[in-house]
Structure formats: structure tokens, C-alpha cells
Amino acid sequence: MIISVLNIKGGVGKTTIAVNLACSLHEAGQKVLIIDTDPQGSALAWHGQREKEDIRLISLPNAVVLRKQALKFAEEYDTVIIDGSPSVDILAAVSIALSDLILLPVGPSPLDIWASSKMVSKIEEAQAINPSIKAAFLVNKFNSRTLISQETELVLREYPLEMMETKLGSRVAYADTMTQGLSVLEWHDKKAKDELQALHEEINERWLNLRKVV
Fold first, then answer.
1. pLDDT at 213 exceeding the cut of 70
2. DSSP for 15-48?
3. How does pLDDT run across 161-195, given as a tens digit for each residue?
4. Residue 155: is its pLDDT beyond 60?
5. In terms of CB atoms within 10 Å, which of 2, 102, 168, 212 comes out highest?
6. Among candidate residues 68, 99, 72, 105, the one with its CA nearest the CA of residue 195
7. Which parts pass through the membrane (predicted)?
8. Which residues, in sequence order, are bridge partners of residue 105?
9. Quick one: three-class SS letters along 53-77?
10. Is residue 111 part of a domain?
């Protein structure tokens, strides 16, 4: 399976979600690969801080190489997670076309929603050609006590994409673990652990019929 975490706006948590999901899948017994396509190399930096050698990560900020290599990797690994670049470019288009599932993280901000619209259009174009590509919004940095968080969820439900029921909160644990090459599963914030586990379980429950890339 290939899961891409995409959005053209920086700061929405793409890399944080990608590496934490990878760690959760690995803990469940899967063989996981992260492909960092972001020229900034945030996932690569996280991996460089990680003491464990349990998650393989490679940097492929090149659309041609990504297209050639990703399907080969999907045969070798149970799950390949693509950490997307912050732009609607050929790298994003290739990532979309390769994906079984696309997670589109959005924070509680009008700017995040507006930026997501362009990516939604690209995803819809790809789905018109390949309807087996699944995609869903994932609300990140959610705070149930703020009106903007509640409004963000309502606005996103008006878009044609599905929406993950799981939301990731605005928690210091996500930032603290990223700087140390850890996942929140290896941290002391139980709420963050529960959120990540809920995300993992929802993906398993909702996308069991995803096509396997062969």
C-alpha cells in the first residue's frame, strides 16, 4: 500500500503525520518505508535524529525517480508512506497517481483550507482517471474549545473529499518528539498516543478494500 501525506501549505503537519503513522504501522508489525519528497528534508532530519534503526527512509525529491522506484518499493514493503512536497507540482502529481490513499492534513485556519483547494482539484483529476485512489482530509492541530477548529471541520465537509473522523490535537508532544527522532508512541503524552492509535485503526477499518499495488 502507498499512502501519501500531501498539502501545498507548509506547517500543516505533513511530516509529523507521516513519521508518526510509519512508527505506528511498524509497531503493529508492518515493514514500512518513508519516502521524503520534500526538498527541505524534514523527514530526513527526523530520521537522522532517530537512534533506532527500525524505520527505513529515503529521500526522493525527483518526480522521475519517484515514479520509477515507488511501485518497486511497494512490492518490498507492506506500506510506503510518501511525505509530500509543499507545492502542486509534478512531484505532487506523481505522488497522487501512485497512491492508494492520500491524507490531506488541514489545520484550523482559513489559509490552510484555501491552500487545500488546489490539491483537492489535482486529486479529483487523478481520481477521474483512476477511481481506486482514495483521499481524505485529516484535521490537525484541532482544539475543540476554539470556534475556528469547529468551523474548519464544517467547511471541509462541504468539499468532495472524504474526511477522517480522527482528529489530531494541538499538542506539544508532536513537536517535542520530532526534534528527537521519536514518535508520540515513545513519549509520555497519553492523549497524543491515543490519537495516533485511533488514526491507525481508522485507516485499517475504512480502507481495508484498498487495492494492493503490484
1. no
2. HHHHHHHHHHHHHTT--EEEEE--TT-HHHHHHH
3. 999 999 999 999 999 999 999 999 999 999 999 99
4. yes
5. 102
6. 105
7. none
8. 138
9. CCCEEEECCCHHHHHHHHHHHHHHC
10. yes
Examine residue 118 and state whether it is found in any structural domain, yes or no: yes
Nearest to 73 by CA among 34, 44, 116: 34
Instruction: Give residue-wise pLDDT tens across range 47-106.
Output: 999 999 999 999 999 999 999 999 999 999 999 999 998 877 889 999 999 999 999 999
- Spatial CB neighbours of 33, under 8 Å, sequence gap ≥ 6: 56, 57, 58, 73, 76, 77, 79, 80, 81
Backbone angles phi, psi at 86, to 5 degrees: -85, 60
Beta strands in the chain (DSSP E): 2-5, 32-36, 56-59, 79-83, 101-106, 134-139, 162-163
Domain total of the chain: 1
CA-based nearest residue to 143, from 153, 133, 135: 153
- Rounded to the nearest integer, the mean pLDDT of the chain is 89
DSSP 84: -
Tell me if 142 is assigned to some domain.
Answer: yes
**12 contacts: CB under 8 Å, gap ≥ 6:** 105, 106, 107, 112, 140
Tell me the residue range of the domain where 189 lies.
Answer: 2-206
CA distance 47 to 30: 18
